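Pinned message: reference record for 2-amino-4-hydroxy-6-hydroxymethyldihydropteridine pyrophosphokinase
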Amino acid sequence: MDTLSYIALGGNLPSAVGRPEVSLGAALCRLGELGFSFVAISRFWRTPAFPSGSGPDYVNAVCKVRSDLQKDAILATLHKVENEFGRQRDGRWASRGLDLDLLAVGDQVCPDLETWTHWRDLPLERQMRDAPEELILPHPRLHERGFVLIPFSDIAPLWRHPVSGLTVMEMLATLPEAEKAAIEPL
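Predicted structure (tokens):
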């Protein structure tokens, strides 16, 4: 079955292939080699590190892909590419050369609404130290992250969140203007 998925790409340190913008381009090429068919790719955006002051600025993008892989196989492929680029998992929100996050697969809510809601509502201090053992879809905090929503709006402004029912543009409109203004296209 051919499924539409959304993947966030980011990095703020050199990877095995070069600067963050080079890494993102090379990662897109690698995903294509591994069978993902690109429907759309956002522009690359320079974004402040999150949380504020935690490292150099990031380069972020979002792509829309078609694949016959199931969600767990997509995630495994993303982790494989990160590893090929030298990704070290040194801690939550640490600086990195390449980060690939599965944002959404179709309109799936995984593993279930109750678990998804738990991770969406997790307080910030717990977000900084706790990571789920299983894949949570859609990404539980994509609605509050300008570094995801601005590139996402490049390619799918009318994508509708399967839980909140809000479009990307509606979610983006709720973010502080100062946060959005700090994100610039490369």
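Pinned by admin. Summary line: The longest helix spans residues 20-33.
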